[in-house]
Amino acid sequence: SEIEMTQKINVGEYGKAIPFDVSEDVSSNTNQLYFKKPDGTILKKDAVVGLTNLQTAKGLFLANQYVTYTPISSDIDVSGRWMARVVSDSGTSLVKTDWQKLEVRA
Which of 25, 42, 50, 101 would you call most buried, defined as having the most Cβ atoms within 10 angstroms of its Cβ? Predict the structure, then answer.
């Protein structure tokens, strides 16, 4: 359901990795997360490939098929409905995941 697909974080939180599933091997790709703030501004951040299987609220993310991003203190700076997507470039192909909801609470 949509509720389960919404990740939640609070304004100002940092230091805890947020996982995003890609569902294909992106271990040798250049991976970025695009965060779309409520005002439409896009924040682009380098993402790290998950190297071990990870059990999440959304199910099992397989090693090399998901990425994580660990926010720094200035990243999550406004509450509201954010969106996030993974952009993964192998050099010969570009994969973009669907936008996912990221609920940022005050």
Answer: 50
